[in-house]
């Protein structure tokens, strides 16, 4: 038994002023984070914001250039082995062998974690069943769909149930059905008692899964709160409009700004514009607001081709929370 100073009454994660510098670039610029035990914590931000770097530091895969942290009560610098034994990272790093079947992969991981062959087999069977992968379990992983692969990645991280699971963008690129399946898995993992830190680029995902959310932008935490608190700052949704005539856009913008008292954004498409609706009050209020806006547009004789009501996008959330769009940082902008 290794001796360490773990204090189980402490939060799962306590990080203060984490800094990571790559060359001239401050990938993390003073991250403070507290994650309670048993919580699903959402770490929301655009490409290149610093989510993966934060996870890598907290999982002891990378050393910070500044700041301190305790993970599951263990000191990040002095007790790296103790942390490693209790956390699991899935997402961008899952070490699955593409030539082996899903079943074989899980059994090998079980052996690596010290399970007997029989125990490893049982655990693999249980996880494959729980993750709806019994069917493809006998096929090489190289032929799995994105959704199957992602579910197997998560299963791989749970061979020995960790106390803290880092899920790095578990649903990026998945279709809505696969995304829903992964959400269900995350809920199951959390219900079983594992603390989950989940990174995501989707506001809706953080809203669905996380009790507490931190928004990261350019290496800094720019907002934090429960989903309801953030939503009340972001607004209840966005109204997207397509006009019949692009020449009417300036008029439509003025009418909408007056009618809804909101920020109207012009899209690159000259026929399109959108407006963030004010803070949520209820579905009926949203309907009334939209109706009011439509009446005003009709009075101003603005022709509408299409109208959709959506959740605020990450861009819109960032605009509301930070005053600027969630633009990826310079290194991630494609040439
Ligand atoms: P993504 O959604 O793209 O994974 P992220 O929020 O996880 O984004 P990070 O991967 O943490 O962001 O990257 C943060 C910043 O640090 C980016 O500008 C990235 O280019 C840079 N970066 C990350 N790892 C390295 C590295 N090993 N060397 C140099 N720069 C790096």
UniProtKB/TrEMBL annotation:
<keyword id="KW-1278">Translocase</keyword>
<comment type="similarity">
    <text>Belongs to the ABC transporter superfamily. Drug exporter-1 (DrugE1) (TC 3.A.1.105) family.</text>
</comment>
<protein>
    <submittedName>
        <fullName>ATP-binding cassette domain-containing protein</fullName>
    </submittedName>
</protein>
<dbReference type="InterPro" id="IPR027417">
    <property type="entry name" value="P-loop_NTPase"/>
</dbReference>
<feature type="domain" description="ABC transporter">
    <location>
        <begin position="13"/>
        <end position="243"/>
    </location>
</feature>
<keyword id="KW-0813">Transport</keyword>
<keyword id="KW-0472">Membrane</keyword>
<dbReference type="InterPro" id="IPR003593">
    <property type="entry name" value="AAA+_ATPase"/>
</dbReference>
<dbReference type="InterPro" id="IPR005894">
    <property type="entry name" value="DrrA"/>
</dbReference>
<dbReference type="InterPro" id="IPR017871">
    <property type="entry name" value="ABC_transporter-like_CS"/>
</dbReference>
<keyword id="KW-0547">Nucleotide-binding</keyword>
<keyword id="KW-0046">Antibiotic resistance</keyword>
<dbReference type="InterPro" id="IPR003439">
    <property type="entry name" value="ABC_transporter-like_ATP-bd"/>
</dbReference>
<dbReference type="GO" id="GO:0005524">
    <property type="term" value="F:ATP binding"/>
</dbReference>
<keyword id="KW-1003">Cell membrane</keyword>
<dbReference type="Pfam" id="PF00005">
    <property type="entry name" value="ABC_tran"/>
</dbReference>
<dbReference type="InterPro" id="IPR050763">
    <property type="entry name" value="ABC_transporter_ATP-binding"/>
</dbReference>
<keyword id="KW-0067">ATP-binding</keyword>
